[in-house]
Design a protein that fits this description.
Blueprint lengths: L3 H8 L27 H20 L2 H5 L2 E9 L2 E5 L19 E12 L3 E11 L5 E14 L2 E9 L3
Parallel strand pairs: 1-6
Antiparallel strand pairs: 1-2, 3-4, 4-5, 5-6
């Protein structure tokens, strides 16, 4: 059963016609005063999350992996996975939790901590079927780092399978 909130989001009533149900994500919230010193770094980190979601939804594995800093560490399904370039394969979209998946969208992207070379972001994302019905939503934490001047997602812990 779809919750009232998900039905409203799916209808685009809260976020306009280009809400999460159409594959577009919510914008990150304004930067809090305590994080203002790192506004540039936060914008770069949030930009990586935007690029990550865009590439994932496009099933563009080269662009998807370009959003990472390696090694990338993923904590999910009671497993710690070390991801290096070339890890992701096209068949990942045909099995498991992605078998009925069409697109995903960010529901929440709140900065927890920020510094000159690392930003922790508390997120929630929703996975949708092609008809925009909700498959599931997952809370997660993304760690975005700057290595050799390049921002990338280096770690994430989620409740997604």
């Amino acid at each position: 059963m779809v919750s009232r909130r998900d039905a409203i989001l799916g209808a685009g009533l809260l976020l306009g016609a280009a809400g999460p149900a159409s594959g577009q994500s919510v914008r990150p919230p304004p930067i809090t005063p305590r994080h203002a010193k790192f506004a540039t770094e936060i914008a770069a980190a949030q930009g990586r999350l935007d690029a990550f979601m865009t590439a994932f939804n496009a099933r563009d594995l080269a662009a998807y992996e370009a959003t990472f800093n390696f090694p990338h560490v993923r904590f999910a399904s009671n497993t710690v996975t070390i991801i290096n370039p070339g890890y992701h394969k096209p068949d990942m979209f045909e099995r498991g939790g992605l078998a009925d998946w069409h697109h995903s969208a960010w529901d929440r992207r709140n900065v927890i901590h920020a510094g000159p070379d690392k930003v922790h972001i508390d997120t929630r994302f929703t996975r949708y079927r092609k008809d925009n019905t909700v498959l599931a939503g997952f809370d997660s934490i993304y760690i975005v780092t700057r290595l050799e001047g390049r921002w990338g997602i280096q770690g994430r812990s989620s409740f997604a399978p």
